[in-house]
Write a structure and sequence with these properties.
There is one protein chain. By secondary structure, this protein is mostly helical. Helices cover 43% and strands 3% of the residues. The chain is built from eight helices and two strands. Strands 1-2 form a two-stranded antiparallel sheet. A hairpin with a 7-residue loop joins strand 1 (18-19) and strand 2 (27-28). Helix 5 crosses helix 6 (94-103). The longest helix has 10 residues, at 94-103. It starts with 17 loop residues before the first strand and ends in a 10-residue tail after the last helix. 35% of the residues are buried.
Length: 134
């Protein structure tokens, strides 16, 4: 289930409630937006079990750096929100990436927080004023 503050991948409306069943990352506000998002189909992948990844002991920044090497940065440049892009890169549901980041040690550096949209900042507990403490 998407976070209540997740944006529609097509129109960026808040409170997107439809989630892609294949990747469990992309969210949409209605079926029209979901059908209109042909770009997502080329990046959509079946997600893996979270247990397949070894995030334990990694700090927040290192988790996202690992996602960059898996194509997360490319998806952000394509217009995907950061958390959705990196969940797709790891091939895990977006909600699980959010849980992993919230449980990980450390804080996100400014490099990452400036890439988050306001809704993602709220999901991760990063204040829009630039306060990066968790």
């Amino acid at each position: 289930m998407p976070s209540a503050s997740q944006l529609c991948l097509t129109c960026e409306a808040t409170n997107a409630t439809l989630i892609c069943k294949k990747c469990q990352c992309a969210a949409y506000c209605n079926t029209t937006c979901q059908k209109d998002d042909s770009e997502h189909r080329q990046y959509c992948v079946k997600t893996k079990r979270l247990e397949d990844w070894h995030f334990e002991g990694l700090e927040k920044d290192l988790i996202l750096e690992d996602g960059s090497g898996r194509g997360g940065g490319m998806l952000v440049r394509e217009g995907y929100p950061l958390l959705t892009a990196y969940a797709l890169a790891f091939k895990i549901p977006r909600s699980q990436l959010l849980d992993v980041l919230n449980k990980a040690e450390g804080t996100l550096s400014e490099h990452w927080t400036t890439c988050l949209n306001e809704n993602e900042r709220l999901e991760l507990g990063v204040l829009c004023t630039g306060d990066e403490s968790f």
